[in-house]
Specification:
This protein is mostly beta strands and 811 residues long. Helix content is 1%, strand content 48%. The chain has 1 helix and 68 strands. The protein has a 7-stranded antiparallel β-sheet. Strands 4-5-16-7-12-13-14 form a 7-stranded antiparallel β-sheet, with no helix packed on it. The longest helix is centred in the N-terminal third of the chain and has 5 residues.
Length: 811
């Protein structure tokens, strides 16, 4: 029989109420158990012979609400640790492992919950699935991944659940049948010591009652943690904060090494850095590295900081064993953000991108939207839909200075197929059907996307706006869909991957002459500086012409322009709209010119790239190789822009960071109607001797939707069904990186690889290497073929690359 231990309390002579006993009730390794969130039916927990039985009570663990109701078996802990348990549902509901900041119903929490299918779907089935869940701010939205997936989130899950806390990083695992950890996902949830850790069970019904068993329950303490303490609860731009403290702690009786990298909010300036132990270095990117060796007890680093425009700290730490984790404790200012609608509309200037933060929206229906803290974003604050309905809207007011066609893009996140869309409209509630639907993504991470439409199919979706005030409506189509920020632009082809999340008061664009095929002589270049009306920032533009080109006729109608170390430096105090012009003559033999420039607004403390034309000729051409490439025992580099042949939507692109300053970008996915289309680079090869060969390449993807190709020797991709055994995973972090083409695990997805270079047995003679576009926006600089699988691919020099000269070299 289920019951709750209670005692009667006499108040005066008139009333008798029921109060829970104050004494703790230890269970196994835990200190106590109680109901969280005041469920209608009280719960109970027992422990016997290594098994915990926990009543499932209460309406929800954050599902479409900002409050939890459940029974909790817990202990209070400090530092970092992992909890692991194997839950078994005897009735319907949710049960799993949890870490929470407090015992309040709306507390910050991270949990890995097993559910019976009926808990959400109402099927009556006991088939179970596993759901990562978290609430990152008190009273905020609770995010729950809604669709089980292969690789750990599986139906009929029977293995243990594992939740690791490392600072503010939480890693969610299941354990497979071989006893190995399967990482489901990683989230960042700010918490401060002490926290409550334990077993949670909810009926997921206000008047429901269920039962869960937990076995193989364990808690393992980690030896090291690092936490941050901020001296204020609020964000005040430009304020000086004193004595921000990082504390590194090794558990009693243990010794640990630590590497701490403190990353400051964008635009902030640290000073007065001191450490009580170890040493620190200021890195070129402005972060600080703090190195501790043989730490026992505690050590501290303190510093002062002038706050810039944002309040998100992204520092990490590692003990050399566990991967880099976000520093624990305080991570975002303000610590308790709220939706705060702007009193004045956002001004929209046709020449500038207008940035709109999600937390500045007005929520029309209380409880339909909630805030989420995510230190991985610049502001650290995002918004999430809680209850799905087109009428549950978040609105923003804008004031358009000049009538025209405008487009919007946003940083958005979906978890699954049930949380990957919003409704969107202007000047009126969304229709609630496909005419207003805006599909986002299901990547479980923030990605930038155009506001698009499904019916009609438009990406980006154009909005013809008159001059004056307008209202943007984001409709809550699916719960768990999230948005960080929204941006308005008049440029429907804007390369949003390069957008910096800043309030911009000045911008610059380059104008180059229209030119086809190749550069044949001097070119006239113009840079137009545009300044937002009403502002007069101090602007410096550094323009980098193609290396070795001769610069003449340098003229600016405002400020001063001079040549410094091969760059043009144009300084414009109290800037207004103005123009710089110059003539650039190519060096002998150059047929392509790539230009780069940076605008720095010294008044408002930001830097952005000079936009407009980046290279001449206007269209860069492939230079096709006339004869096959000889492949021998030495490493051979195949430049992507010089293949034997190419087909489909591929384009040569400039990039000043590359040795050749050129790469190739895929402009579409290379597949349609479940078959591969003719979109690839091909390289004719002459293999000099039979042997085993390996591939590595220098590639770049912008995100998880542009981080792969199909690659193969002597294979015809055209008309083939996509086959993961040819998949090549590249970097998706927006940077060019070298990576082996790794050995594929038979029967897996293309990212299921062993980590070892993939061997190819090639006979002497003619072969063809095909490099096929799998996703849009993926880039390749070069492909290398080698016979050495132990080659240090990051150290090998590509053609034209120079050895860095160390200043201590002896001659």
């Amino acid at each position: 029989m289920r019951f709750t231990q209670q005692v009667f309390c006499l108040i005066g002579f008139l009333a008798v109420i029921v109060c829970p006993l104050a004494a703790q009730v230890p269970l196994g390794i835990f200190e106590d158990h109680l109901d969280v969130g005041d469920p209608n039916i009280p719960g109970l927990a027992t422990f016997s012979a290594g098994k915990y039985e926990v009543d499932a009570v209460g309406a929800s663990i954050g599902y479409r609400t900002t409050n939890d109701q459940f029974h909790f078996v817990f202990k209070k802990m400090t530092g970092d640790f992992v909890i692991q348990a194997a839950p078994l549902p005897l009735d319907l509901g949710w049960g799993g492992v949890m870490v929470r900041q407090s015992l309040d119903g709306d507390s910050v929490q991270a949990s890995l919950m097993m559910t019976t299918a009926a808990a959400i779907r109402g099927t009556g089935s006991l088939d179970s699935s596993v759901y990562p869940t978290f609430r990152s701010m008190k009273g905020g939205a609770t995010k729950t991944d809604g669709d089980p997936e292969p690789g750990g989130l599986t139906d009929n899950h029977t293995g243990p659940l594992r939740l690791e806390k490392n600072g503010n990083t939480f890693r969610y695992y299941t354990i497979n049948t071989a006893g190995a950890k399967v990482l489901i996902r990683t989230e960042v949830v700010p918490m401060s010591d002490p926290v409550y850790v334990g077993l949670a069970a909810s009926a997921m019904q206000a008047d429901g009652l269920g039962m869960w068993e937990f076995t193989d329950v364990s808690i393992e303490e980690y030896p090291l943690t690092v936490v941050r303490k901020l001296p204020t609860d609020q964000l005040q731009k430009g304020a000086n904060l004193s004595s921000i403290t990082l504390t590194a702690s090794a558990r009693s009786g243990q010794v640990s090494d630590a590497t701490v990298t403190e990353i400051f909010p964008v635009g902030s300036k640290p000073s007065n850095i001191t450490v009580s132990a170890g040493e620190f270095n200021i890195n070129p990117n402005g972060s600080v590295s703090w190195i501790l060796t043989g730490l026992s007890g505690q050590a501290t680093m303190t510093y002062d900081l002038k706050i810039g425009s944002f309040g998100s700290w992204q520092g990490t730490f590692t003990d050399g064993i566990i991967g880099a984790s976000y520093i624990g404790g305080d991570a975002v200012l303000p610590k308790a953000p709220v939706f705060e609608a702007r009193t004045a509309p956002y001004p929209v200037d046709k020449n500038f991108i207008t940035l709109i933060q999600a937390e500045s929206g007005e929520v029309w229906q209380e409880g339909s939207w909630g805030l989420v803290i995510d230190p991985r974003t610049r502001t650290g604050i995002t918004a999430m839909s809680v209850n799905s309905s087109a009428a549950n809207v978040l609105t923003f007011n804008i004031n358009v200075a000049e009538a025209g066609t405008y487009y919007l893009f946003a940083s958005v996140r979906g978890e699954d197929g049930n949380s990957d869309s919003f409704h969107f409209s202007v000047d009126g509630l969304p229709a609630g059907d496909d005419s207003s639907r805006w599909n986002i993504n299901s990547a479980k991470a923030f990605q930038t996307r155009w506001v698009s439409s499904v019916n009609p199919n438009l990406n980006p979706r154009p909005f013809d706006l008159t001059a004056g005030e307008h209202t943007l409506f984001i409709g809550n189509r699916e719960d768990d869909a999230s948005i960080d920020w929204l941006a308005v632009t008049s440029n429907g082809s804007f390369a949003y991957a390069s957008f910096q999340e800043l309030d911009q008061f000045a911008g610059a664009s380059r104008v180059l002459p229209a030119m086809e095929n190749k550069v044949t002589g001097p070119v006239n270049v113009k840079i137009n500086l545009a300044v937002k009306s009403g502002s007069t920032p101090n602007v410096v533009i550094e323009e980098t012409p193609p290396a070795g080109w001769t610069i003449t006729n340098l003229t600016g109608n405002m400020g001063t322009a001079v040549m410094q170390d091969g760059k043009i430096v144009w300084t414009v105090p109290a800037a207004k709209n103005s123009t710089l012009s110059y003539t650039a003559a190519p060096k002998e033999g150059d047929i392509v010119g790539v230009f780069a420039g940076t605008l720095t607004d010294q008044t408002n403390e930001y830097s952005i790239a000079v936009g407009g034309n980046q290279y001449i000729p206007t269209t860069l051409n492939f230079q096709l190789a006339v004869k096959p490439f000889d492949i021998g025992t030495d490493t051979v580099f195949l430049q992507a822009e010089t293949p034997s042949a190419f087909s489909g939507s591929l384009a040569v692109r400039p990039d000043m960071s590359l040795v050749t300053q050129l790469c190739v970008e895929s402009l579409s996915s290379g597949q349609a109607n479940s078959l591969l289309t003719d979109q690839e680079l091909t390289f004719k090869l002459n293999v000099l001797q039979t042997g085993t060969y390996y591939i590595f390449a220098k590639c770049r993807g912008e995100d998880s939707n542009s981080d792969s190709f199909f690659v193969g020797f002597d294979v015809t991709f055209l008309g083939m069904a996509p086959d993961d055994k040819y998949g090549y995973q590249i970097s998706g972090n927006g940077q060019f990186e070298r990576r082996w083409y790794q050995t594929y695990i038979e029967g897996g997805r293309f990212w299921d690889v062993t980590g070892e270079p993939r061997p190819f047995e090639l006979t002497a003679g003619a072969h063809t290497l095909s490099w096929h576009s799998r996703e849009t926006s993926s880039k390749v600089d070069w492909i290398a073929i080698t016979t050495d699988p132990a080659l240090d691919i990051d150290a090998v020099l590509e053609p034209g690359e120079k050895v860095a000269v160390l200043d201590y070299m002896l001659y």
